[in-house]
């Protein structure tokens, strides 16, 4: 295979001496990203209720845009004409776009996977359309994000049998078509997506095939669809063992704090999830001990901020009592809680990075779990996953 041109460089800054965690500087065309990183998801090119300026203040270095939504409105050609999505939304830092495939399958009622691509009935005008690997890349080339994703054959993580085999092989074939169709490899980085369901052999085969393709980075896909966490961590650690160390590893659709801490320990560098902003819309604020349901009566006269240690605009200015009075019925509350929740994710990742740099990540993990589960009723999958990389939650005396 010939080496693909790349607009990405990954420098490993520190490696944890116990787990598979590492801290890197990932240099992309628009910015340098410190990893491990959480990427907030902006569907229409913007996060609901948060401006690009506010995201920059939170030191967000990379965000995600949904190709499916952007492809419809304002449309890739218009975005391209005004100089790409960066210009359109006034975001100076890095962007990643997905292929559009996942949204297609989850949002469009009538969609069908064929070798050619995803056939679907447009919800806008009821015409039959086809999203091929080539079309997905063409749209993403027009949008102009720093990182673009291959179109993959998405199956639910709980699907088993021949359909998973077919989807895995097809995803490899589609990666080849995406590489061929990619017109801007010197400015945009195409990532392959490791599929294979919850089958260790299939995932191994897929990861090995993808690695031969020499794209600038790899994602681990198909693992955020409600499968048991027992499977998630095994598929993740198997993938990070095969994927090359000098390229970024992006675990798609994962964003719960516990999952982030564990999967960093398993060697993942990048994460995205709609959870922090989605949960904010229901009035739930993220804190290290779990979450605050701000609707709850107990906050009616609580004059503390969500988190006294948080430096976000919401925590600097507003009390739980005030937020309680407006949550879920005033749109500004959605903005205020979303802002805090993104700040929470950013701070968590920054604390993780610092602990890796100072080679005390195992202790960080133990402290983090104790704060989240003060009675030490740790989820079994997390205990097993961390055991596998040398961090033993249930034995305080082993370092
Ligand atoms: Zn806050």
UniProtKB/TrEMBL annotation:
<feature type="region of interest" description="RNA binding; important for wobble base 34 recognition">
    <location>
        <begin position="277"/>
        <end position="281"/>
    </location>
</feature>
<feature type="binding site">
    <location>
        <position position="152"/>
    </location>
    <ligand>
        <name>substrate</name>
    </ligand>
</feature>
<feature type="active site" description="Proton acceptor">
    <location>
        <position position="98"/>
    </location>
</feature>
<keyword id="KW-0808">Transferase</keyword>
<keyword id="KW-0963">Cytoplasm</keyword>
<keyword id="KW-0819">tRNA processing</keyword>
<feature type="binding site">
    <location>
        <position position="222"/>
    </location>
    <ligand>
        <name>substrate</name>
    </ligand>
</feature>
<dbReference type="InterPro" id="IPR036511">
    <property type="entry name" value="TGT-like_sf"/>
</dbReference>
<comment type="function">
    <text>Catalytic subunit of the queuine tRNA-ribosyltransferase (TGT) that catalyzes the base-exchange of a guanine (G) residue with queuine (Q) at position 34 (anticodon wobble position) in tRNAs with GU(N) anticodons (tRNA-Asp, -Asn, -His and -Tyr), resulting in the hypermodified nucleoside queuosine (7-(((4,5-cis-dihydroxy-2-cyclopenten-1-yl)amino)methyl)-7-deazaguanosine). Catalysis occurs through a double-displacement mechanism. The nucleophile active site attacks the C1' of nucleotide 34 to detach the guanine base from the RNA, forming a covalent enzyme-RNA intermediate.</text>
</comment>
<dbReference type="GO" id="GO:0046872">
    <property type="term" value="F:metal ion binding"/>
</dbReference>
<feature type="binding site">
    <location>
        <position position="312"/>
    </location>
    <ligand>
        <name>Zn(2+)</name>
    </ligand>
</feature>
<keyword id="KW-0479">Metal-binding</keyword>
<dbReference type="GO" id="GO:0006400">
    <property type="term" value="P:tRNA modification"/>
</dbReference>
<comment type="subunit">
    <text>Heterodimer of a catalytic subunit QTRT1 and an accessory subunit QTRT2.</text>
</comment>
<dbReference type="Pfam" id="PF01702">
    <property type="entry name" value="TGT"/>
</dbReference>
<protein>
    <recommendedName>
        <fullName>Queuine tRNA-ribosyltransferase catalytic subunit 1</fullName>
        <ecNumber>2.4.2.64</ecNumber>
    </recommendedName>
</protein>
<feature type="domain" description="tRNA-guanine(15) transglycosylase-like">
    <location>
        <begin position="19"/>
        <end position="372"/>
    </location>
</feature>
<feature type="binding site">
    <location>
        <begin position="98"/>
        <end position="102"/>
    </location>
    <ligand>
        <name>substrate</name>
    </ligand>
</feature>
<dbReference type="InterPro" id="IPR004803">
    <property type="entry name" value="TGT"/>
</dbReference>
<dbReference type="GO" id="GO:0008479">
    <property type="term" value="F:tRNA-guanosine(34) queuine transglycosylase activity"/>
</dbReference>
<feature type="active site" description="Nucleophile">
    <location>
        <position position="272"/>
    </location>
</feature>
<keyword id="KW-0328">Glycosyltransferase</keyword>
<comment type="similarity">
    <text>Belongs to the queuine tRNA-ribosyltransferase family.</text>
</comment>
<dbReference type="InterPro" id="IPR002616">
    <property type="entry name" value="tRNA_ribo_trans-like"/>
</dbReference>
<feature type="binding site">
    <location>
        <position position="195"/>
    </location>
    <ligand>
        <name>substrate</name>
    </ligand>
</feature>
<feature type="region of interest" description="RNA binding">
    <location>
        <begin position="253"/>
        <end position="259"/>
    </location>
</feature>
<feature type="binding site">
    <location>
        <position position="315"/>
    </location>
    <ligand>
        <name>Zn(2+)</name>
    </ligand>
</feature>
<feature type="binding site">
    <location>
        <position position="340"/>
    </location>
    <ligand>
        <name>Zn(2+)</name>
    </ligand>
</feature>
<keyword id="KW-0862">Zinc</keyword>
<feature type="binding site">
    <location>
        <position position="310"/>
    </location>
    <ligand>
        <name>Zn(2+)</name>
    </ligand>
</feature>
<comment type="subunit">
    <text>Heterodimer of a catalytic subunit and an accessory subunit.</text>
</comment>
<dbReference type="GO" id="GO:0005829">
    <property type="term" value="C:cytosol"/>
</dbReference>
């Amino acid at each position: 295979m010939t080496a693909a041109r790349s607009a990405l460089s990954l420098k490993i800054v520190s490696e944890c001496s116990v787990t598979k965690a590492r801290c890197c500087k990932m240099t992309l065309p628009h910015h340098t990203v410190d990893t491990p990183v959480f990427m907030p998801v902006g569907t229409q090119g913007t996060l609901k209720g948060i401006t690009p300026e506010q995201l920059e203040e939170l030191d967000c270095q990379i965000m995600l845009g949904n190709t499916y939504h952007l492809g419809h409105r304002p449309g890739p050609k218009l975005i391209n004409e005004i100089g790409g999505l960066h210009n359109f939304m006034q975001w100076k830092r890095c962007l990643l776009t997905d292929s559009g495939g996942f949204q297609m399958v989850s949002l469009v009622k009538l969609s069908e996977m064929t070798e050619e691509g995803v056939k679907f009935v447009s919800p806008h005008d009821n015409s039959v359309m086809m999203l091929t690997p080539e079309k997905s890349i063409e749209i993403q080339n027009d949008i102009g994000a720093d990182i673009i994703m291959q179109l993959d054959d998405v199956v639910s993580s709980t699907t088993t049998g021949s359909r998973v085999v077919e989807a895995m092989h097809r995803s490899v074939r589609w990666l080849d078509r995406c590489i061929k169709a990619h017109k801007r490899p010197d400015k945009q980085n195409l990532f392959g997506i490791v599929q294979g369901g919850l089958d260790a052999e299939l995932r191994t085969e897929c990861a090995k095939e993808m690695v031969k393709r020499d794209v600038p980075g790899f994602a681990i896909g198909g693992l955020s669809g409600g499968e048991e966490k027992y499977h998630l961590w095994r598929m993740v650690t198997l993938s990070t063992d095969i994927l090359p160390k000098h390229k970024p590893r992006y675990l798609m659709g994962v964003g719960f704090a516990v999952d982030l801490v564990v999967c960093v320990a398993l060697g993942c560098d990048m994460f995205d999830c709609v959870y922090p902003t989605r949960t904010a819309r229901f009035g739930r604020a993220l804190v290290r001990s779990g979450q605050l349901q701000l609707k709850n009566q107990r906050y009616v006269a609580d004059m503390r901020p969500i988190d006294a240690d948080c430096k976000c605009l919401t925590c600097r200015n507003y009390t739980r009592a005030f937020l309680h009075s407006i949550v879920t019925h005033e749109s500004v509350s959605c903005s205020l809680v979303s802002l805090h929740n993104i700040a929470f994710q950013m701070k968590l990742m920054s604390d993780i990075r610092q602990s890796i740099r100072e080679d005390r990540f195992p202790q960080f993990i133990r402290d983090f779990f104790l704060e989240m589960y003060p009675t030490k009723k740790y989820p079994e999958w997390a205990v097993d996953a961390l055991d596998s990389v040398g961090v033993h939650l249930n034995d305080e005396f082993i370092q």
